[in-house]
Amino acid sequence: MVEFSKVNLKDIEEDDEGEEEGEEVESAPPLKVGEEREIGSNGLKKKLMKRGLNWETPQFGDEVTVHYVGSLSDGSIFISTRASNEPFTLKLGRGDIVIGLDHGIVTMRRGEVALFTLPPELAYGASGRAGIPPNAVVQLEVELLSWITVVDVCKDGGIIKKILENGEQIGPPGDLDEVRVNYKAMLVDGTIVADTRDEGVEFYIKDGHFCPALVKAIKTMKKGERVNLVVQPQYGFGEVGKKSNELPSIPPKSTLSISAELLSFKRVIDITGDLKVKKKVLREGEGTVTANEGAAVTDRNYLWITKCRCNSGSVSLLVRYKAMLEDGTVFERKGIDGEQPLEFITDEEQTIVGLDRAVSTMKKNEYALVTISPEYGFGSTEVKQDLAVVPPSSTILYEVEMLDFVREKAPWEMSNAERIEAAAWKKEEGNQLFKNGKYQRAAKKYDKVLQAADYVGEDGYLTGDDEKVVKSLRVSCWLNGAACSLKLNNFGEAINLCSKILDVESCNVKALYRRAQAYMGISELHSAEMDIKRASEADPHNREIKLIQKSLKQLQAESNRRDAKLYKAMFPSTSKDASTAAKRLKTGEDDTRDEYVSAMEAGNASVDQAASDTTAKT
Predict the structure, then answer these.
(1) Quick count: other Cβ atoms within 10 Å of Cβ 439?
(2) What is the pLDDT of residue 317?
(3) If exposure means fewest CB atoms within 10 Å of the residue's CB, which of 75, 104, 504, 615 is most exposed?
(4) Which of 172-181, 205-214, 222-231, 590-599 bottoms out in mean pLDDT, i.e. has the lowest?
(5) How far apart are the C-alpha atoms of 252 and 559, rounded to whole Å?
(6) How far apart are CA 98 and CA 100, in angstroms?
């Protein structure tokens, strides 16, 4: 027969108030053996007779096993579990002995012995009981032998978890993780309705298994943890139950008892945030440091460190892998069966995006299975690899091992000279990427330049020449970053970067020009007109500024026509007036254009052709 615990939710809620009193006591210095102290403000006193082990204490709702001896103030004993050598198990918060004692036990540690003195209102009150007179002060000597932590998993009494054995400090698993669980489920009468035996069963948390309660409980467990679950029907098999050919069926509205152990689990990480590149960790790596962006991957047995350009911030890494289709067909091997390992620079498009992104998250000696959807793999094209052909739109798998890597030297680890040199090098890399149409990657390079520049002078040493170089690098990379943003239609970022330049160089023609382009991209035509006007005043003969001014006038004309058309549609009864208004808008626009062109032709300054939006190099 299975014994089911009855959980009183009201008791659990009231227990929270009791925990506050316990916290007040624990904030005081620990008791010394033989020392007595009042707990809380209700007259409960505790005298420490023997120290306990560790620092953990039970909580309200837990099931504790104790020996206790009760006596009156004259020393007469009215109850003792030691006399029968049968410990007593009680649920804290229910007052199974007396409610005041529960507030004392929550301050105890495993193996501790304490003497509690309870006033009548916390003991047997004005009525007393057999052998205990009314309004009696009683003393209870308690030894805390052990306890089982009890958790209300869903906070509604539907799944009560008793922790029989604490697990390791690994876990709990997440929704994507693969777990191996050993469990046995029984009905109230002890009938076994499910049993995985000792070997357990593997499944992914997100896929569910057996019943909702099992998965919900596992998500609260650590590796090696053993529990007993009391599951109400709404988290089991509800109103319909479950039929089975091999084991007894589960009747409708059945309460279940499930003993479970989380044997192991493999973390599955969503690398890209859209579940299209997932990494299942088959073997954890060393430490906490992962390979980061800008790392070169190679073999630990090769003299690869010389390939690391420390001044540019490159990083050397190492992987070997086996690449497969979903049916198990191997199409590539690196570093396996005599093959050389792969050496590459992450984020340099030297391998498929999915593998690049996954490798960057790995630790030394980590071994993982990476699943890559076509969007991050070879796409919709057929690709011939070393050992097989990858069909179009294939999901591919990589068993990858990170053998070694040397992390990128961070800006704060460099001297000023190294920071400036690294920034200049990365700027040139960014310029080359821009010329090759790699705008996203170029923007990242410019960001790294700015990060390095921000640390120049952090150590307090900055010469005048260094300050000039840093300012030039910042302005250059803001400009180039703005050009990348324009190419990527990220107009907001382009405006932000150009505004930074104009904060330090208010008449920078390129910044005005590119910010005007961005304003036009978001239809902020008035702001664009102001920037073009300032740029034209600074350099009236610049051809690019004249061209963008012409484009702006065309956009303004189109905007005016749309406004007139909208006005006509909103007020059809006054269509004649609307037509006249449109003509007036057209006439006013033509007059403004003539005045603007005349003003520009009267200027006499010149601007470098470099303001063109087709180049990022400054």
Answers:
(1) 20
(2) 66
(3) 75
(4) 590-599
(5) 68
(6) 6
> What is the spatial distance between Cα 73 and Cα 46, in angstroms, rounded to a whole number?
15
Residue 598: per-residue pLDDT:
40
Considering just the CA atoms, what is the radius of gyration of the chain in Å? 37
Backbone angles phi, psi at 36, to 5 degrees: -120, 145
Chain Cα centroid distance, residue 147: 34
User: Which of 287-291, 358-362, 602-606 bottoms out in mean pLDDT, i.e. has the lowest?
Assistant: 602-606
Q: Which residue has the tokens 């490159």?
A: 314
Residue (of 185, 178, 184) closest to 198 by Cα position = 184
Query: How far are the Cα atoms of 253, 256, 257, 259 from residue 236, in angstroms, in the given order?
Result: 8, 7, 10, 14
How far is Cα 39 from Cα 108, in angstroms, rounded to an integer? 12
Q: What is the mean pLDDT of the chain?
A: 84
Question: Among 15-19, 157-161, 499-503, which stretch is predicted with the lowest mean pLDDT?
Answer: 15-19
What interhelical angle do 543-570 and 525-538 show, nearest 10? 160
β-bridge mates for residue 226, sequence order: 165, 261
Q: How far is CA 161 from the centre of its chain?
A: 27
pLDDT in tens, 146-181: 999 999 999 999 999 999 999 998 889 999 999 999
Kindly state the tokens that stand for 187: 């009905």
- Which residues, at least 6 apart from 544, have a Cβ–Cβ distance to it below 8 Å? 513, 607, 609, 611, 612, 613
Nearest residue to 332 (alpha-carbon basis) of 402, 389, 277, 380? 389
pLDDT category of residue 360 using cuts at 50, 70 and 90: confident
Residue with tokens 């061209």: 547
Q: Which of 527, 501, 507 is nearest to 516 (CA)?
A: 527
Q: Pick the closest to residue 616 from 347, 430, 426, 470 (CA basis).
A: 430
Ranges of beta strands (E only) in 358-454 are 363-364, 367-372, 383-384, 389-390, 396-406
Q: Which residues contact 472 (CB under 8 A, 6 or more apart)?
A: none
What does the pLDDT read at residue 575? 53
Dihedral Cα 357, 327, 280, 373, nearest 10 deg: 30
DSSP state of 163: E
